Model the fold of this input.
Amino acid sequence: MLILSGTISFSQAPLSGNIVVPVVVHIISKNPGAITDQQIIDSIADLNNAFAHSGPYAALGPGANTGISFCLAKIDPDGGNSTGITRTQSPLGDFDSDIENDKLKNLISWNSKEYCNIWYVEGVKNEYMTSFSCGNWSRRHDIGYSTFNTGPDSLDGIVTADFGPVLAGLMGGWLGLKYTFTGGCSNTNCDTDGDGVCDTPPASGPASSCATVQNSCRTDTASGFGTDMPDLNSNFMSLGGACTSSFTGGQGAKMRNNIQSVRSSLLSSNKCNPPCAENIVAGFTRDSWLAKTGDIIHFTSTSTGGANYQWSINDQVTGSNSPAFSMAFPAAGKYKITLKVYNGNAGCYASYSDFVIVNCGVTARFTPDVRQIASKDPILLNSILFSNRSVNATSYQWWMSNDAGMAPELVSTAFDLNKPFKASGNYSVWLVAKNGACSDTTEKFNFPVYDPTVDGTVSLSDVQCYQQTKIMVKMSVCNYGYASIPAGIPVTFYNADPATETAKKLSPVFLIPDIIAGRCCHSYTAIIDADTAGLNQLYAVFNDNGSRGPFNLPATKLPELNYANDTASKTNFQFHVSALPPSAILQPGDTLQLGEQAGPGIISSWLWSPAEGLSCTDCADPYFIADKKVYDVSKKLIATSSYGCVDSSLAVLHIPPADDFQISMNKLDCAGSDSLHASFTICNNFKRGSIPAGLQVSFYDADPAGGNAHLLGPVFSTEAENPDTCASYEWFFSNTTTGKVFAKVNDNGQHVAAFTVNPYPETRLDNNQDTGSVVPFTVTINPADTTISRLTSVQLNPQTSGGQASTYAWEPAQYLSCSDCASPRATPDKSIEYHLTVQNEYACAATASTYLKTYAGGSVSIPNGFTPNNDGHNDVFFILGGQDVKLIKDFSIFNRWGQKVFQISNASANDPKSGWNGLLAGRPAETGTYVYSVLISFTDGRTENFSGTITLIR
Done:
């Protein structure tokens, strides 16, 4: 298929090389010499312009160069030079194509396999594309015609009374083209439907004119057009008139294909070039066009360029070398008279032939004024005038027969026949013309006489409910007959099939108010009373007054050709409305546009209820906005049609749970001695979700899906709605004994085994839980239990786990740079143990200690006095040792009376805890001098005893 994309395919370049077709023009006329050779030559030149879309045709608009041209044949069937023009004197120059086609072409015809025969006549009588509409006949008369025969046939060719565009269209038909309106608008496959050419848009009928733009079909896109195209009124095959000017590329391709296939013999012999070079033209005239048996006819040469003449009859040479020849024809028949003209070379000649038809001298002829009628007594009487055009006759017999029982019979002996037809049928008429014993008979003229009887039908184009209990009917009453339907014929309506006894006649009976001519339709509107609401089937019967029952036609005096098509019915015409959508599932906050579908008819008013959530209640398509909750609601639509009928419908709207809460444990902290602090995030996975007020979170010491979980109260609850989809919260609750905390959102803490009460509906509950592990709050000190030189500074660095310390308390504060800071510096002059107590921000405490062991310079240093007055300075008498001192194995102190006031064994040096604090039996000892004895072991394994005195001063 040719794809056109919204344009007609026109080509200015020839289609694949030029093809030349030889033609012969047979001029048939009472005076054929009135048409000159130059006129014929000019007409063929014009035909070539039409097929090349050149000359005057190019100026009239776009068109294709078909690559096809035509030549007047230069060789005649006898092999001699020819002008391609013949002339025959005959009254058949004005002929009837339905009756005299064979007679015309029998006058002269060249081999149709080698030539295109064109019979040029004075006039063609025929009737083409006859139609009857609304009481009037439309008849196209007197048009040329062509044939498309695939075998040799003397009747094959073109008959025309016109040249120019008319001849171009007829030649297109002879080469296999069809009219562009062939098949009407049918266009399922453009390669086979209609004219079989894809670049000619289909048309419903002949063009009214070239200038009038019309688009009679809407099936153009099936041909590959990108858009609907106007009819090709200017196409030669459109019958648009004298202003037609073009072929399309597709038409050109089709003609070329036909020439190269079914008409390929036209190209097999070169008929367009003369057989020899001498400029000789043969021709002759005769003194009688109609020869009777025994007549002598005189033939006179009109030849030029030759000196020698050879006459022959039926290809048998006769007569002498003379430009004149006479012949008596003793018997009836058809005789071929040929003249060859030549000079010294008998092989180079021109030839010309004519045919003499010999009979008794009478030629029977007639023509009808119309060729289709409708007539039947007493319905409608019409007649046809058959005009007698016979030659040399003195008496006439008109014979007629039909296919309705009329055997051939003589119906008139008048010159003309004006015949009224009382019965319909397919008729044949023929004329016998006589002159004494001489007679001639025409071919039969076959024509239809249609039955004019009324054929009324009723069709219901639109039926609608009207004012709830009535029915508004729009109908067409058509007359497919030829006679008119009179005014006053009834159309009766029923609530059921009128052929049944249960059918009830409805009122009123509709009387057709006007005359409906043949082949015409009138449209009417009627209001029928159904007596009840809801009737949803209606039957209408033409030509029925409702007086008979059961149903029987006709019920009036109007006869019809067909009663089977008098009834029409319609169902499902009650006004009905459907709310759209009939149901829908929304999410909270969704917006849905409601609508309706109604029919038949249109809605004049709307009422939606209830009004909650609707943008309007009296409009066609309100918006519904779903509230942020889970619920179902129905919206009722009450619609009233433009004809006052009412119907209602529901739209059921479901708003299922859309919230999807999810909890994430961010952090668990110790709080006090028996509580925990949790920070967590709650999210709502719904796209428009928020965190509602009152949403609860419960904490458990085990998976609440099991049976061993305990609630770690109290239960958390959001105080106010948070518009965000995620929000963070903090909460205190009882400590767990399992080391785990199971947090569950949308849970009220009333968990019993696997059952949980979820106050807020959710789309899913399997993601409502998260688990956290409890890490105990502890503290350590770095360094821990270290040894340093006396009066050397060291920084104490605490480290916590399970939380972040917020307060620090160091004890004792002696030798520390600070006692409530995170990392004090210690500068002790003796061994000392520090204790640290820390608390996190939730008052959870943790403790740790570190022991700083000091050593003095040298090996052993023993003071000679001390002042135990609790002023924090020199309150204890203890042994100072270097790094080599391993252990004070024994340290004893005596008073002056030898009484032992202090003793310690296996003690550490440099540690006041290993010294004497000046108390004796819990009471301050007296001021004075005391004797000490110290046994020390060293790291190198040796043991040494030290003794001396110490003074106690108060």
The longest helix spans residues 37-52. Residues 19-267 form a domain with the Collagenase (Catalytic Domain) fold (CATH 3.40.390.10). The radius of gyration is 63 Å.
